[in-house]
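#structure-requests
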Amino acid sequence: MSEYEKSNLGDSASSIIKNHMIWSMGAGFIPVPIADLFAVSAIQLDMIRQLCKLYGTDFKQTEGKAIISSLTGSGLARLGARAIKFIPGVGSILGGVTMAALSGASTYALGEVFKKHFETGGTFLDFDTDRLKKYYNEKFEKGKEVAEELRKKQESTVKAADLSESMEKLRELGEMKASGLLTDEEFEVMKKKIINS
């Protein structure tokens, strides 16, 4: 395989990992504590299936579930512990943010472990969870940073869209005032509503 082909393969794997990480973060917001763990596990299993297909390795669902449990066991235990501590109302939202970040970090780390294993010619048959556990833990820490970057990027995209929408509403309001459809007082009241929202 040429360096170009290896690079394309690595980019495709990274894209699969990032997409599943985003889906895992979304699943972390599920308000039912145990349901989000099952959803994240299903997303991670699908990610492994896609990575297997990409690298031409046979996917084995039972072994995949066992590897996920073995590598992410402590991470999922942390997720579960946080889920139990949910406080109704605002606490559950704050807990959801944490769950989303940890879910994303876990998926990122798991994907990176499989990517590294498959890039070195590994298969399900020679997957050594004990040996790769340290690498998973390192990537889990990195995954928390990546999850935070994704969250900030999403937040800024939403803010930019909101700002653009507000600017458009103000422009339309100005046109309505200029054409005599709104009095100065009505214009000021509506402008304040848009700015405050």
